[in-house]
Specification:
It contains 4 helices and 15 strands. The chain is an alpha+beta fold. The chain has one domain (about 5-250): Creatinase/methionine aminopeptidase superfamily (Creatine Amidinohydrolase), CATH 3.90.230. Helix 1 packs antiparallel against helix 2 (about 35-50) and helix 3 runs antiparallel to helix 4 (about 150-160). The longest helix has 24 residues, at about 5-30. About 50% of the residues are buried. The structure holds 2-amino-4-trifluoromethylsulfanyl-butyric acid and cobalt (II) ion.
Length: about 250
């Protein structure tokens, strides 16, 4: 069942999404060669807690994996998503995706962005640009009366036209009352198919794009998802609300 949120619920989701967006901007400004992913995690956790909210990923469990140990996900280079913050030191030329979920007063927000550490090569630069643009093209399709795979199709079409691959094993999702709700929002699909979109739905749209092939594998830590061919990967995500027949991005500040 796809939940339609009331005005009151949307106010709570808005607040969580605002904290997500602020935390992402805070971290974006901290990314530089020499910082560890764990330092980023600590900064995020402190900021989220200081807003009387909680990092939604911490302790989260899915598919029999142990509870997620971080407050955020930090995925570097060929790491696609769910990279665990640790003692890894970022270096010039790395591409890092930062994914943050927040829960406050029982309601969730979820967003991610990718950032260059210093100077990255042209392929990584283009990969980030194409992935971010594909997110916005997907969001444009999130209007009442359209269907879920209209979002998927828009993302896939743009990414593949640019010579990159859409990760297929992970999807966007409804979000708000739970971190992961229906519908599942794949980043590939056939126009005009999938569940119908309605005002009051809150969705996390999140293209994950590999510079090489789309296959992924799971690392020994049981969380980190890696591009199987070792190519670079980028990830951007927003929580949006379908509001008055238009998409409204909630994870901006
Ligand atoms: N944005 C990611 C997702 O929706 C983050 C989940 S991380 C986890 O899957 F640790 F909570 F799984
Ligand atoms: Co998500």
């Amino acid at each position: 069942m796809i939940l339609i949120k009331s005005k009151k619920e949307i106010d709570y989701i808005r607040e969580s999404c605002k904290i997500v967006a602020e935390t992402l901007q805070l971290l974006k400004a901290k990314v530089r060669a020499g910082i560890t992913t764990l330092e980023l995690d600590r900064i995020a956790e402190d900021y989220i807690l200081s807003n009387n909210a909680k990092p939604a990923f911490k302790g989260y469990s899915q598919g029999g994996a142990p509870g997620y140990p971080g407050s955020i996900c930090t995925s570097v280079n060929e790491e696609v998503v769910h990279g665990i913050p640790g003692y890894r030191v970022l270096k010039d030329g790395d591409l890092i995706s930062i994914d943050i979920g927040v829960v406050k007063d029982g309601y969730f927000g979820d967003a991610a962005l990718s950032v260059a550490v210093g100077e990255v090569d042209d392929e990584k630069k283009r990969l980030m640009e194409v992935t971010e643009r594909s997110l916005y093209l997907g969001i444009e399709q999130a209007i009442e009366g359209n269907r879920v795979h209209d979002i998927s199709f828009a993302v896939q079409q743009y990414v593949e036209a640019n010579g990159f691959s859409i990760v297929r094993d992970l999807c966007g999702h409804g979000v708000g009352k739970y971190l992961h709700e229906e519908p599942s929002i794949p980043n590939f699909g056939k126009k005009g198919t999938g569940p119908k979109l309605k005002n009051g739905m809150t969705l996390a749209i999140e293209p994950m794009v590999n510079a090489g092939k789309y296959e992924v594998i799971t690392a020994d830590d049981k969380w980190t998802i890696l591009a199987a061919d070792g190519s670079a990967s980028a990830h951007f995500e927003h929580t949006i609300l379908i509001n008055k027949n238009k998409p409204e991005i909630l994870t901006i500040c």
